[in-house]
Amino acid sequence: MQWDGTALTVEADETAVPQFSPLKGRIRVIPEAVTEIEAILDASGRQIWRPFAPRARIEVDFSD
Q1: Mean per-residue pLDDT for 3-23?
Q2: The three-state (H, E, C) secondary structure of the chain, written as one string
Q3: Which end of the chain is more exposed for a tag (fewer CB within 10 A), N or C?
């Protein structure tokens, strides 16, 4: 995964199941809205959930 300041890019190089065939490609998540809202999930405040980009455009490019 790599964040370039405008998009999160995920490079996939996996094995698809149950076919056990190669699965390679790229997924890009481009936020259209970013929020600072956080929800504390535990009493100590160590677990936080944040909907960083509740609205985003996604580009998917996988090879055959």
Answers
A1: 92
A2: CEECCCCEEEEEEEEECCCCEEEEEEEEEEEEECCCCCEECCCCCCCEECCCCCEEEEEEEECC
A3: C
